[in-house]
Amino acid sequence: MATPVIMPKFGMAQEEGTVIRWLKQEGDRVEKGDVLLEVMTDKVDMEVEAQASGILQGIRVGPGETVPVTTVLAYILEPGEALPQDAAPTQAESQAEPQAAAATEATEVSAVKASPVARRMAAEQGIDLARLTGSGPGGRVTKEDVLAAVQAAQASPPPGRVRATPAARRLAREAGISLDGIPGSGPRGRIQAADVERRLAAQVPAPAPAQEPVPGPVGATTALPDQAAPLTGMRRTIARRLTQSWQTIPHVTFTASVDMRQAEALRQRLAPDVEAAGGRFTPTVLLALAVARLLPRHPRLNAWLQPQGDELLLTQHSRVNLGVAVALDEGLIVPVIHGAEELGLAALARRIGDLSQRARSGDLQPQEVMDGTFTISNLGMFPVDHFTALINPPQVAILAVGRAQMQPVWDGEGFQPAPVLRLTLSADHRAVDGAVAAAFLADLKAALEDPARLLL
Amino acid sequence: MDDQTEKTSSPEQAQAPPSDEFAGLSPDSLREALRRMLLIRAFEETAEQLYFQGLIHGTMHLSIGQEGSAVGSIWALRPEDYILSTHRGHGHSIAKGAKPSLMMAEFLAKETGYCRGRGGSMHIADVETGNLGANGIVGGGIPLAAGVGVSIQMQKLDRVVMVFFGDGAANEGAFHESLNLASIWDLPVVYLCENNQYAMSMSVRRSMNIEDISQRACAYGIPGVSVDGNDFLAVYRAAKEAVDRARRGEGPTLIEAKTYRWKGHSRSDKQRYRTKEEVQEWQARDPIRRLAERMMAQGWLDEAAFQALQADVDREIQEAVRFAQESPEPDPATILEGVYA
Amino acid sequence: MSRELTYAQAIREAIALAMERDERVFLFGEDVGIYGGAFGVTDGLLDRFGPERVRDTPISEAVLAGVATGAAMTGMRPILEIQFMDFITLSMEQLVLQAAKLRFMLGGKVNIPFVLRTPAGAGTGAAAQHSESLENWFVHVPGIKVVMPSTPADAKGLLLGAIEDPNPVIFVEHKLLYRTKGPVPEGYTPIPLSQTEVKREGGDLTVVATSLMVARALEAAETLAQEGIQLEVVDPRTLKPLDEQPIIDSVKKTGRVLIVHEACKTGGYGGELAAIIAGSEAFDYLDAPIRRLAGLDMPVPYNRELERRMVPQVEDIVDAARKLVREGI
User: Is B254 a member of any domain?
Assistant: First the structure.
């Protein structure tokens, strides 16, 4: 029985996925559990495993293509089994199709058994004999089978009549594209507006003449100089989220300068111990530790603000799910350290190191980027003095960390050279007032300038 | 014509009554009543001719032969009193003071007509003369009359409402509801049933088992009276008493005026339900001729004066036709006007 | 300033305010005086305004509609209560052939400003002849306006608006709403007719509902919000003449629409709404079929469970809405 390979739905909010590459090829023998392909969801790359053993056939979604979740990508067939007839059924539908299982004949078109009159009629009517199930002796396709197929074809919409919603038609019309070939995610394959949007988003400009040498480093964006290309995958998700953040959240920012002399001294003193425990004591780890320890005292900032009907719902979290932004070539990803307030220094360092590495290799699990309650974005490794970050909704705050610069610091008697860091807290002003933000920044500054306070 | 209508449409202001035979009406008032009856007949005869010429579409219901009940009853009203009329209502409108020119314009579906060409023959209304409209539904005005009565009563107006209907409408349920309500609330309503013997083709003999429709008044505890509807003065006397009673706040009266329509029900009527002899018999009791002859006997009118009245009326109707024909059609851009206020 | 009133109290307050303010306004109908109305809506008004302005009537629905029309066309502003909407069948000639048409037939020379209040709807176990929802009959009659308030505040404001309106207005109240409470502004606060209101905003699905179904749609919206489905609930309030644009705008925003009314589906108001939406600029934004949820095509049954099933319930709206949003069907 044909087993469909579908675009899996990995997370609640996930609507689509993009095929990165197929690890098995058309016609390959696969075993249940083999990794068939890699796909990219909103933010995470995932592997899709074979659900059955058999031959991989009918790959219909290639690398770079984005399709709705549950879209059939290919089939795993038993030896000798024919591909199911329907173009793009959902998993549930395909299992309900009896003819998919009934087609047991060998599938080479020339090998189809058919009576001469059936063959002639099929040719006249443009019916593919290979798609018919023969009712004659030995499965031979008869005249009646062809007539039935002709009637069935007449009952279904004529070719060229694409099932699509008015909204989908409008979008296609406005974009000047055809609906033909767009996979429909609606009932019985109806093309929805979102399907057209996906097609538009996935549309790359027509490929350049084959094998034309491309100057410079090879990469997804540099390969197409001066050409506009729609954002895809992660970049598109980022664009949507940031627009939502910028348009709906009244941001207010607060900046504080921190004398990092003691913090740096502490970091350097404990770095070997942390390394011995399997982690790296980076400035980010220190900042994360301080923030994770302090946030439970500032629950107003460790919170979500979500619309619910006409209301805005504020949820203050007792646990700190700390997001730490990691820069990638394609954008930014924020792995989340769940329950960060309970982790010791070494454990926190290990966890941040592990998540950052897997973020860069695309090996994060969906739950590892979900449910953050507060985010740190550190650009201290770059020559950025300070910056403001956009809040990642439904969170209400994000801490932007610039680089430490040597500056004279007044110690009551004279100016001392000290590495000074500038922290900028962006807060959702609907949920957070200035005093709340200031109190947090004051605590954070005090803790970093005198790390012993973290023991309090 | 306007001036004539205005100055004589209030018979109560006419000269002192010379004798009881004429119910206290002056010669001038009687002459105007006679003229009004002639005007109704001329109007309807002309309208019928225009219809035959294809100048009027739809249908119309002629009251030729019933002028006595129309003018006789309305002669008991004041200008500010209300009437509600029927599908056979041209006579009521003219009796109450409507201008034949504006009526004719309505017949010809012109913008200048009483209903701006939207209503036609069956819906002539002239709110300014208290005419709240003819009605295409048999008995349709009877419930409305109760409402107008409530309105007069609550606003403490010194007015009455007279509602016309036919023998057919007296068999509608709404007739019962309205008379009952007007009775219990003492509403100032005069129910004037013009029994012209036929509800389309259904004769009174076949549709009810009573001699006089006015007998039904006793069921509601109100006065009921039947009169010769072709006798202008008999109708006037009964109406006057009912109007006075209503005006005094003593409640409604049911009057039956027995009369006859000379023409068919509408333009398509083959009149299989009655005989030529019967029609001729009633035509011999022409209400116009009868009033004219009584006035002549009294010396208040001679044949020459009668002919002069007739000529005057014909001239007015011809003028009305000219006005109507020269009037503009409604502007299609205004088609929805009047649906909602 | 506002305080909590029931729907019935809000209506009574509107009647009293209008009668205090305008001598032409009077109330009449079967059992509206001593009895206080079959549902108690007019309780106390007889004592306050006397028997001339609060009139008990015989059981004569035909002439009552005629009284409303005749009095309105000669300077009064009547409020008629027809005890159950079912009984309006007995008034039909006067409403449809007289009240609705007289103004037009007479070339616009008269106004007919009356309000006919009447309770409609199933849910009281009153069976087939006391539970009808006949609003769409009147929607089909030009010259008449049709109003269906869904909240106490709307009941008061729209009734004052209806009394001010110079046309015959059929004001359809719902028996199951009479005891519902809500904030109602104090004082004389009319709401003009023909103003559609968005009762709740949401981005996933437009639910256009009338009368009791508005309350049920709002309840369904609460349930679905917890699943992440945001309903936008739109209440036409005045069915005729309809303020179409807010409905069209909402459908353009959400791309999906579910229409909910209690009256039988076939020939119901939902068909008209569906046609308006499909024929409007919102067509090009539809991403799912226009769906209707309405009363079954049957007389209202007596048995409690059968009666419940005949009329859309909250769970029916939840199911239909979820299906439209999740599955596009």
Answer: yes
B-chain residues near C58 (CB < 8 A) = 177, 180-181, 184
Select from C301, C302, C200, C217 the least CA-distant residue to C261. C217
Asked if C295 and C133 count as a contact pair (C-beta separation under 8 A), the reply is: yes
- Where exactly are the structural domains of chain A? 1-104, 237-455
* Mean pLDDT to the nearest integer, B236-264: 97
CA distance A185 to chain C (A): 9
- Does A1-104 match A237-455 in CATH topology? no
Same domain? For C175 and C204 the reply is no
Task: Record the pTM.
Answer: 0.65
Range of the domain at C158: 2-185
User: CB-based contact (8 Å) between C297 and chain A?
Assistant: no
Same domain? C34 vs C170: yes
CB of B145 within 8 Å of any CB in chain C? Answer: yes
Are C145 and B340 inside 8 Å of each other by CB? Answer: yes
A102-155 pLDDT, tens digit per residue, is 333 333 334 677 777 777 777 777 677 777 777 777 777 777 777 776 655 544
Q: Is the confidence metric ipTM above 0.90 for this complex?
A: yes
**A192 interaction partners in chain C (CB closer than 8 Å):** 287-288, 328
Residue-wise pLDDT tens digits, C83-118: 999 999 999 999 999 999 999 999 999 999 999 999
Amino acid residing at B282: W
- Domain with residue B128: its CATH number is 3.40.50.970
**Residue C191 included in any domain:** no
The CATH number that domain A237-455 falls under is: 3.30.559.10
Based on the fold, state whether residues C212 and C180 are members of the same structural domain.
Answer: no
**Residues on chain B touching C60 (C-beta within 8 angstroms):** 177, 180-181
Asked whether the beta carbons of C207 and C221 are under 8 A apart, the reply is yes
**DSSP letters for A78-142:** -TTPPPPSSSS--HHHHHH-HHHHH--S---GGG--B-HHHHHHHHHHT--GGGSPP-SGGG-B-
C256 shares a domain with C124: no
Do you find a cis peptide bond into C241, omega within 30 degrees of 0? yes
Tell if the CB–CB gap between B154 and C113 is shorter than 8 Å: no
Q: Is residue C192 part of a domain?
A: no
- Record: contact C285-A167, CB cut-off 8 A: yes
Contact flag B150-C76 (C-beta cutoff 8 Å):
yes
Instruction: Compute and round to an integer the Cα radius of gyration of chain C.
Output: 19
The conformation of residue C225, written as its DSSP 8-state character, comes to: H
Note if C61 is an active site residue.
yes
CATH 2.40.50.100 matches A1-104: yes
Q: How far apart are the CA of C219 and the nearest CA of chain B, in angstroms?
A: 36
In this structure, the answer to whether residues C217 and C300 fall within a common structural domain is yes
C98 with B135: Cβ contact below 8 A: yes
The answer to whether residues A300 and A436 touch, using CB atoms and an 8 Å cutoff, is yes
Across the interface, which of A168, A308, A309 has its CB nearest the CB of C287? A168
C285 and A CB contact within 8 Å: yes
In single-letter form, the type of residue at position A27 comes to G
Phi then psi for A260, rounded to 5 degrees? Answer: -100, 15
CATH code of the domain in which C159 resides: 3.40.50.970
Q: Which domain holds residue B230?
A: 29-264+278-322
Under a CB-based contact definition with an 8 Å cutoff, are residues A388 and A33 in contact?
no
Burial (CB count <10 Å: 0-12, 13-18, 19+), residue A348: buried
Residue B273 belongs to a domain: no
Residue at C145 is within a domain? yes
CB A278 within 8 A of CB A348: no
- A124-137 CB burial, b ≥16 within 10 A, e <16: eeebebbbbbbeee
Kindly tell me if the per-residue pLDDT of A204 is higher than 50. Answer: no
Taking the Cβ of residue C102 and every Cβ of chain B, the question of whether any pair is shorter than 8 Å is answered with: yes
Three-class secondary structure of residue A148 per DSSP: helix
Q: CA–CA separation, B89 vs B123, rounded Å?
A: 8
